[in-house]
Amino acid sequence: MFENLSEKLDKAFKVLKGQGSISEINVAQTMKEIRKALISADVDYKTAKEFTATVKEKALGQEVLTTLKPGELLTKIMKDELAELMGSSSSELNLNSKPAIILVAGLQGSGKTTFCGKLAYFLKNHNKKSPLLVACDVYRPAAIDQISVLAEQVSAEVYKEIENKDPISISSNAVKYAKKNNHDVVIIDTAGRLAVDEAMMTEITNIKSSINPDEILFVVDSMTGQDAVNTAKAFNHRLDFNGVVLTKLDGDTRGGAALTIRSVVDKPIKFIGTSEKMEGLDIFHPDRMASRILGMGDVISLVERAQQQFDEQEARKIQKKIAKNTFGFDDFLKQIQQIKKMGNIKDLAGMIPGVGKAIKDVDIDDDAFKGIESIIYSMTPYERSNPNVLNGSRKKRIASGSGTNVQEINQLIKQFSQMGKMMKMMQGGGASKMMEMMKGNNLPRF
Amino acid sequence: MAFFDKIKNLFNNNDKVSSEESSQKQKKLEKSLEKTKTSLFNKITKTVVGKSKIDDNDLDDIEEILITSDIGVETSLKIIDRLEKRVEKDKYINSDELTDILKKEIEELLVVSKDITLEVDSVENVPYVIMVVGVNGVGKTTTIGKLAHKFKKAGLKVVLGAADTFRAAAVDQLVIWSERVGVDIVKQAMGSDPASVAFDTIQSAMSKNADVVIIDTAGRLHNKINLMNELSKIKNVMNKVVTNAPHDVLLVLDASTGQNAIEQAKQFSSVTQVNSLALTKLDGTAKGGVVIGISDQLQIPVRYIGVGEGMEDLQMFNKEDFVNTLFNN
User: CB contact, 8 Å: A35 with chain B?
Assistant: First the structure.
C-alpha cells in the first residue's frame, strides 16, 4: 500500500549509496527528498519537517558501523522513527464492560458503516462476542438499510428505530436492549458529519454523554490530504476519542494519514480497512507499517494471516491424500479457496520483502483463480478424483463447459501434477510450506 | 423545445440567474472557501508585508501555504518557480502584487470547463448520457441526486440508472433520491450485472423520450484492475444502445482527498476517458487544492462543486470565482 513512497525513498537513498560515511552534505540532500516524498504521500507538512529533522539529527550523531552502508543505517533509523511516530505498539479495544459500548464517528464517506459491519464480524470471530449493531445515521438516505444488510452478512443483530429521528434516544434505547438481550458489545454507527457543522458536532457530543461509551473510534479515509490533521484535531477536541480507524488502505500510495494522525492527536490507530469485504479489517501494527513504508515487507502479517485462514484439519486430510496419491482436483479446489480466503493475492504478495515493488504494475487480482475454478467445476466428480482419466474427448467437453480451450486444460493438468509432486516433496508442512509455494511463484497462472 | 435548446438554457440559466440568487450562491461559495481564503491569504500577507523582495524564507512559507492547501509538491514548485522568475525581473514586490501573480498563476493552471451544450450538440433524438464514477465514499449518489434535481428544474426529463449493485443499500439510496427529486429510476436486484442495468436504463429512457440519463456506478478504488475493467465494460455497453454514449463521464472527487486524487483522475481516465470532475464536500474544512494539480497535469476541467447535503447544493465550477474567492479581500 505504500509502494510509491517506498519507491521515492529508494530513490532518495540512492544518493547515499556508495558513500562511506554520513556527512552533513549527503544527508541534507537525502532529507530533502524524503521530505518531498512524505509530503507527496499526504503527510502533514509540519510533521514531515519535524520527522526529517529528527532523522537527520540521529543519523549524524550515529557512528557508521562497518557492516552497514550509510543508506542502510539511515533506513534503520527511519524505520524506528516511523514506527515511533505512528505509535510504538498496537492498541487493543477496551471490551471489559458488559456490554462494551463502541461509538463510531467520522466525516461523510469515510467508511463508518462498512467499518461497523467489519468490526462486528471481527469481534464475533476473534473475541467470541455477540455484537449489536446500532443504526444511528438517521439522515443519509438508506443508511439504515445499509447497516441492516451488512448486519445480515455478518450474522449480527441490528438495532434500529425506523420512525425515530433522534440518534440520542436510539443509542440509549439500544444500550438498554443490548443489556436485556445479552449482547456484550454495542457498536453504534453514526451519521457522517463535518467538523465545522456545529449542530451535528453537538449531537454527537450528546450521544457520547448519554451512553458513556467505552471506546470512541474516529474513522478516517486513508486518502485524506492535509485536512486530515484539522479534522482529527476537531473531532478529538469534541469527543476525546480513544482510537483511529484508517479505511481504504487497499488503495495505492497513501499513508500520510497513518504517519500523521497519531503524532498530531496523540491517539493510536487501532484498525485498518483493507478491502470491501467484511473480513477486510486488520489490527494496526505501527512497526509493520514502518517496515512496509521502507519496502522491508511485512512477513509477520503475511504469516499470521495465512495461519488464521489455514484450516489445520483440512491440511492434514490433504497431506494424507498426497501420501496415498489420491490428491484430486476437488482437493486442489479446496486449496485454492484457502488461498483466496487469505485475501487479495496482490496484497499478500506485496507483504513479501522485495516483491511489493516488483509486482506493482502486474495484474494479479481476486479472480486469478477464476479460470482454474471454472475448468474444475466443468469436470465430473469422477474426473476430479481421478485426474488420470482425462482423455481427449473429456478435455474437449470440459473446455467447452468452462469456456476455455484444450490447451488451457492441458496446461492446468500439467501444473496440477507438478504441484502434486511438489507437495509430496514437502510432506509434513503446514502454512509455511504454502507460503514457500507462493514465493516460488508456482501458482498456476492463466 | 428542442433538446439542444433545453440543455443550453439549463446552463445559461446558471449565468443569468437573478442577481439575488447569484449573490446568494456567491456567498455560499465564499463561505465554503472561507477557510482556504483566510489561511492562504492571511499567511501570504503575513509572509510578504514590509519586505522589499521575496527571500528564501518567504518562498518557503509560500511553499508551505500551497502544500497545506493540497496543491501538491509538483504544482506548488511550478508556481514558486514562476514567482522566483518574477522576482529576478522585478526586485521589488509588494504583497498585493504577489497575490495577483499567485492568483493568475493558479487561474492559468485551471482548465476552463467546457459548456456541456457544446457536447450535446451532436446528440439528437437520443438521451444525453452521463456516467458517474469515483472511489468509495466520495459522494457519487448524492451528486447524482443533486444533478437530477438541477436537470429537472430546467425542464428536462431525467432517468436514473442504479448501476451500483454492489454496495449494501446503494440502490435504495438512489431510489430515495429519485423519489425526493421526482424522476424515474431503473434498477435491478442487488448483485446484478451493472452493465445490464446501464443498458436497461438507456433503453427505458429512449422509450420514454427522456432527455438525460445519469448512471450511478459502484465506488471502486482505482488500483483494482478488475473493478476498473468492469467500468469500461459498463461504458462499452452504453455505446451499444446509443452511439457515443456516455456523452459525459463525470469523475467525483472528495475535496478532502490529498494527492491521491491525481492518481484517481489518471486511472479513471485511462479506463473511461473522464471528461469532467465534480468536487464534493467543499463545505468542510478541506481546501480542494488538488484540483489545481489535476487540471494542470491532466487537463480535465472541474464542472461542478458540492457545497452541502441539500438538493440545491451543487454549483457550476467557475475558475475565476474559485480563485477570486481564494484571494479576494
Answer: no
- CA dihedral (B298, B299, B305, B306) in degrees, to 10, reads -20
The reply to whether A403 touches chain B by the CB within 8 Å rule is no
With 60 as the cut, is the pLDDT of residue B11 above it?
no
Candidates A389, A373, A383; CA nearest to A332 is A373
Return the pLDDT at A437.
47
Residues B125, B263 share a domain = yes
Q: Which residue of B has its CA nearest to A37?
A: B73
Residue-level pLDDT at A357? 53
* Whether the predicted interface score ipTM is above 0.85: no
**Minimal Cα–Cα distance from A51 to chain B, Å?**
16
Tell me, yes or no, if A50 comes closer than 8 A to chain B by beta carbon: no
Q: Chain A partners of B257 at a C-beta cutoff of 8 Å?
A: 221, 223-225
Q: What domains does chain A contain, in order, with CATH numbers?
A: 3-85 (1.20.120.140), 100-296 (3.40.50.300), 303-439 (1.10.260.30)
Dihedral sign computed on CA atoms, order B165, B170, B172, B176: negative
What backbone torsions phi and psi does residue A20 show, to the nearest 5 degrees?
-75, -25
Interatomic CA distance for residues A224 and A259, integer angstroms: 12
Distance, CA of B246 to CA of B202 (rounded, Å): 10
Beta strands of A92-168 (E only): which ranges? 100-106, 131-136, 157-159
Residues 186..215 of A with a Cβ closer than 8 Å to B: which? Answer: 194-196
> Which residue segment(s) compose the domain that B281 sits in?
116-318
A-B CB pairs within 8 A amount to 148
Per the DSSP assignment, residues forming a β-bridge with B306 are B314
- The CA distance from B206 to A291, in Å, is 55
Do the domain assignments include residue B27? no
Please report, for the domain that includes residue B63, its CATH number: 1.20.120.140
Calpha distance B81→B78 (Å, rounded): 5
Crossing angle (nearest 10°) for helices A167-180 and A198-211 = 20
Sheet holding A185-190, edge to edge: A157-159, A131-136, A185-190, A100-106, A215-221, A243-247, A269-273, A281-283
Give the pLDDT confidence of A129-160 residue by residue, as tens digits. 999 999 999 999 999 999 999 999 999 999 99
Angle subtended at Cα A39 by Cα A33 and Cα A44, rounded to the nearest 5 degrees: 135
Residues of B in contact with A252 (CB under 8 A): 221-223, 260, 263
Angle between helices A312-323 and A329-341 (to 10 degrees): 150
Of the candidates A142, A226, A234, which has its C-beta nearest B169's C-beta? A142
Per-residue pLDDT tens digits for A325-350: 777 888 778 777 766 666 666 666 66
Is residue B141 located within the same domain as residue B236?
yes
Q: Residue B68 pLDDT > 60, yes or no? A: yes
Instruction: Give the pLDDT mean for B270-287.
Output: 90
Task: State how many domains chain B has.
Answer: 2
Q: Given B109, B137, B166, which residue is the final one in a domain?
A: B109
Chain A residues closer than 8 Å to B261 by CB = 223, 225
Residue closest to A302 by CA, chosen among A264, A277, A274: A274
Contact A227 B286 (CB under 8 A): yes
Contact by Cβ (8 Å): A118, A126? no
Same domain for B249 and B267, yes or no, is: yes
B91 burial level (CB within 10 Å; 0-12, 13-18, 19+): exposed
What is the phi/psi pair of residue A352, to 5°? -80, 125
